[in-house]
Write the structure tokens for this entry.
Amino acid sequence: MRSVCKTDIGLVRKVNEDSFLCEKLENSSDSYLYIVADGMGGHNAGEVASYMAVREVASHIKNNIGVLKLGDNGILDLIRNAILYANEKVYKASIIKSNCLGMGTTLSMVLMIKDRAYIGHVGDSRIYLIRKNVISRLTEDHSLVAELIKAGTIKEEEANNHPQKNVITRALGTEYTIEPDVSRCNIQDGDFVLMCTDGLSNAVYEEDMVYTLLNTPDLYEACSILISKAKEKGGYDNITAVIFQMCKGGDNSDR
């Protein structure tokens, strides 16, 4: 497995409210945990929310790592419970701390076990699968424009220019209860998975994502190029990307 991660404050925001995690799990062979989160809330509370969510999800996964032996359903339950656990922690902190009132965050995660990706998702950060020269989304945005597209009210190409494109309909930490999306996907040798906050997905065309990954052998350079492309489009938001590639029989590396 090759993996890289990088975050950038962008060109407009004063604080980077994105958080991420990219690591191999100890005491578990061939298992990796990847998370991206995009915080929201005034007085830098978004930064607190995303950091807390990533930390609490990772903590819950590591403290219950024995569940990885229970098969697909047990692992999906572990991911769901990890997100619910983090949601409770963030929600309670938003109530107790006056400067964190109303904070919340998106969270998209992949728990890779051998060649299978177990996915958890809340909000509008995205997870893409790039297989050969085809890109597909492994998550569905929890956003107002996504609902309008599904209802046929607007076309997908109109979404980026919609005045309410930043309105999300589901977030971690904003309510006591939450229902995360969970799913699983087989990953093949040579596949890329790109996880990113909307600072990247709103600015970079999907075909540019594919071209960059297929034509840049160094993953860290590919990550840097994608972030640069988002900044060329204005860099209006924080930009975070996690990229990993299945490489059977190759060297494991993380940056």
